């Protein structure tokens, strides 16, 4: 059972989320609040929850502003009518980003992404709980918000203040840093930093030769000298 709170200034949206929580057996609603100030007060009074469903556009204190002032926020699922805050939200390491209106199936998918992180530590001799191996998020490409499934990503390349996210069919130039994206993908063990300029999805490696990873579709990624030991150890865990 995971505890949760809702912070949204729209009453209809709050009622919808409350209904979705009621339909979810492993969720228990602790608080349903109408604005960011009430949310800040809730957490500063020492209240804790496992999951926070958080709107962004609210008077006095936005959802993103609230996240920035919380010292130890819970897992956060953004619920908003706006797509253009996605990059900023994921920089704050939210678990998922739901664009209104969303249905119960999409709500359930977001909740399932929280569960691996909330799982209790395994008892001695039990297998470790693995992080989920698939995820997607919105990234801002020029003036568009594009959903990228990170299972499909071959590698990410740093380009100064941008990154180049490469899939078998597309390349996306995104205004963010490689470090920020590495932090966002830290829960997925298949993504490994292999070079100061490259983050590699080891699921797509076809072969390795001369410290170069050869990927599907003729792509290749260099493995930097200072990263080689950690990289080859990561392959042994797969």
UniProtKB/TrEMBL annotation:
Positions of the HTH LytTR-type domain: 137-237
Pfam families, sorted: LytTR (PF04397), Response_reg (PF00072)
Residues carrying 4-aspartylphosphate: 55
Domain Response regulatory: 3-115
Tree of life domain: Bacteria
Family annotation (InterPro entries): CheY-like_superfamily, LytR-like, LytTR_DNA-bd_dom, Sig_transdc_resp-reg_receiver
Gene3D superfamilies: 3.40.50.2300, LytTr DNA-binding domain
Alphabetical list of SMART domains matching this protein: LytTR (SM00850), REC (SM00448)
Coiled-coil blocks: none
Protein name: Response regulator transcription factor
Protein's UniProt keywords contain Phosphoprotein: yes
Keywords attached to this entry: Phosphoprotein
């Amino acid at each position: 059972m995971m505890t949760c709170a809702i912070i949204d200034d729209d009453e209809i949206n709050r009622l919808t989320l409350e209904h979705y929580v009621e339909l979810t057996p492993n969720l228990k609603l602790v608080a349903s609040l109408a604005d960011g100030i009430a949310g800040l007060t809730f957490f500063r009074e020492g209240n804790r929850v496992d999951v926070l469903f958080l709107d962004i556009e609210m008077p006095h204190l936005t959802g993103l502003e609230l996240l920035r002032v919380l010292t130890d926020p819970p897992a956060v699922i953004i619920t908003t009518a706006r797509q253009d805050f996605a990059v900023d939200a994921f920089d704050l390491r939210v678990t998922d980003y739901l664009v209104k209106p969303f249905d119960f199936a999409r709500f359930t998918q977001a909740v399932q992404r929280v569960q691996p992180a909330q799982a209790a530590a395994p008892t001695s001799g039990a297998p470790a709980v693995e992080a989920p191996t698939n995820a997607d998020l919105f990234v801002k490409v020029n003036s568009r918000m594009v959903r990228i499934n990170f299972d499909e990503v071959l590698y990410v390349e740093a380009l100064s203040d941008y990154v180049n996210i490469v899939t078998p069919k597309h390349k996306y130039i995104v205004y963010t840093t490689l470090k920020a994206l590495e932090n966002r993908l830290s829960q997925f063990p298949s993504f490994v930093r292999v070079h100061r300029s490259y983050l590699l999805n080891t699921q797509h490696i076809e072969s390795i030769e001369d410290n170069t990873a050869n990927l599907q579709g003729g792509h290749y990624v260099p493995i930097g000298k200072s990263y080689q030991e950690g990289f080859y150890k990561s392959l042994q865990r797969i």
